[in-house]
Amino acid sequence: MKKRTMFLSMLLCLSVLLLGGVCWAQSEAGLQPAVTNVPGAQYPRIGADSRVEFRFKAPEAQKVQVQVGAVQTPFDMIKGADGVWSVTTPPIVPGFHYYYLVIDGVMVDDPASYTYYGVGKDSSGIDVPEKGVDFYTIKNVPHGTVREQWYHSKTTDSWRHLVIYTPPDYDTNLKARYPVLYLQHGSGEDETGWIRQGHANFILDNLIAAGKAKPMIIVMSNGYAAKAVPAAQPAPSGPAAGLLAEPRMTSGLEEELLNDTIPLIDSAFRTIADQSHRAMAGLSMGSMQTLQITTAHLDTFGYIGAFSGAGFGAGAPDLKTAYNGAFADPAAFNKKVKGFFVGIGTDEPSRMRDGVLAFHKTLDDAGVKHIFYEAPGTAHEWQTWRKDLFQFAPVLFQ
């Protein structure tokens, strides 16, 4: 019976191909190619129970493994007679994950996968669907436009790159002006992450179409912004200058954002350029940057979103001094800030989660108005931040 079913499936697939279509052949176990595969690649495949089947042809290799996520133990792959290595993993947590092949001890990207900039380098990625969750998938609704903008920054004395989302009616409703959300990525990632890994454009498209969020512009900039170094002061070099190791690489973001990025956006796009129509949010490192920048400039930002990056270790912060003393007078903060959002995943590392929970409780006890959200079953990963944005965007500019 199984052979008959496979034969009929092959005939059906051949018919589709002859008619000019694309056939994603389903495996016997019900696994299907990941949406993050390059065109034509049949593996990795994902099952309905979130198991993932990886395959890689390396006839001369002695040992091949696949590592999903930077800290998980690699899965050993088994070599077949045809030189193809394979493994089917246990169920993997739904959401986007970076992954790598380890071939005889050398970590490489999988040529069957698109690459995504994360952990300081291009990495293979796999997006495991979550049952019943489609808020970040592309749908048959009006779509906004994702643009790219290069400009020269006076702060960094370098060419910089922005990724910008404009809402569906931006190019047709030419008299309309729009509020702006400045949205930051995390450590080791860049300004492309919120679109390629996070699907921020589809999240907003779907929310706007459902009438749950205001049409808005989203500006995504690179959080690594080092101030220009005077000629007499040489820039750091060597390992200490790496993106993940050198705090100097982020030290200029505040000045860059206020003096370069925001003026550029307000001059080049039809924005509503005031505090009540300007928001900033970020994930992890970007969350900490957001809090430091917005709390020092409450006259500039009316909405604040902190995704997986608020708090001070496991201890409670002193609100009289924390974050530029912005919370020392809760009534004044509540009056000035129209929306303050704090998010965390329920399965995040305990030190990070405990810190955010302590921050949330301290804010509550002090009477600082904020929305607290816990993404169920997710860790320090894009599925958490997708859900954070989905919850945060409807709060903005209402």
Structure in words:
The chain has an eight-stranded mixed sheet. About 25% of the residues lie in helices and about 25% in strands. The chain has helices at about 1-20, 195, 200-210, 255-270, 285-295, 330-335, 350-365, 380-390; strands spanning about 30-35, 45, 50-55, 65-70, 75, 80, 85-90, 95-105, 105-110, 115-120, 120-130, 145-155, 160-165, 180-185, 215-220, 280-285, 305, 340-345, 370-375. The protein contains eight helices and 19 strands. With about 400 residues, it is α+β, with helices and mostly antiparallel strands. It has two domains: about 30-130, Immunoglobulin-like (Sandwich); about 145-235 and about 245-395, 3-Layer(aba) Sandwich (Rossmann fold), CATH 3.40.50.1820. The longest helix is centred in the N-terminal third of the chain and has 17 residues, at about 1-20. A hairpin with a 2-residue loop joins strand 8 (about 95-105) and strand 9 (about 105-110). The protein is globular, with a radius of gyration of 23 Å.
Would you spell out the secondary-structure blueprint of this structure?
Layout: H1 2-18, E1 32-33, E2 45-46, E3 52-57, E4 64-68, E5 75-76, E6 78-79, E7 84-88, E8 95-103, E9 106-108, E10 115-118, E11 121-128, E12 145-153, E13 158-166, E14 180-184, H2 193-196, H3 200-209, E15 217-220, H4 253-268, E16 278-283, H5 285-296, E17 303-307, H6 330-336, E18 339-345, H7 350-366, E19 371-375, H8 382-392
Parallel strand pairs: 14-15, 14-16, 16-17, 17-18, 18-19
Antiparallel strand pairs: 1-2, 2-3, 3-7, 4-5, 4-8, 6-7, 8-9, 8-11, 10-11, 12-13, 13-15
